[in-house]
User: What shape does this take?
Amino acid sequence: MKCLLDTCSLLWLLSDSKKLSSKAVEVIKDRRIEVYASTISFWELSLKHGIGKLALENYEIEEIDAILLEDLAIGIIGLNEQESLSYFRLPSAKDHRDPFERMLAWQAIKRDMALVSSDPAFEQYRRCGLRIIW
Assistant: This one.
C-alpha cells in the first residue's frame, strides 16, 4: 500500500504532535507501507510561512525535504503533467474550495494512494475513489 500525507498530517508528523491518530502513526511507522509527502504541501507551507501564517519552531522550512527523506524515510512526490491536466475531473464541491487540499486528493486518487488526513471534507471524494486513513 502507498499513502500520501495531507499538509496537516505532514506538519503534525514533523512536530511529533499527538494530533496524529493512532491509526495514522501505525501506518506511517509500518515499513511495509510506502509513505509520501507531496510538493503541493511544500508549496502550501511555503506560502503560509511567507505571509506569517505558519511559524516553525524546530527547523527551517527549507529543511523539510531533508528531514522527511533522511530522518523519517518519507518519500516525496511532485505533481505530474497528467495530474495537472486531468484535475478538472475532480467534482466541484461548494464546501471544499481549498486548491491545495483538492489537488492532494486528486493526486492520491490518480496514484492509487490512500490519503492520511483528519479533514472530514475529503469524505466527499470517496465516490471518486479516494481512500482515507485516519
Observations:
- The longest strand covers residues 34-38.
- Strands lie at 2-5, 34-38, 75-77, 114-116, 131-133.
- Helices lie at 7-14, 22-29, 39-50, 64-71, 81-86, 99-110.
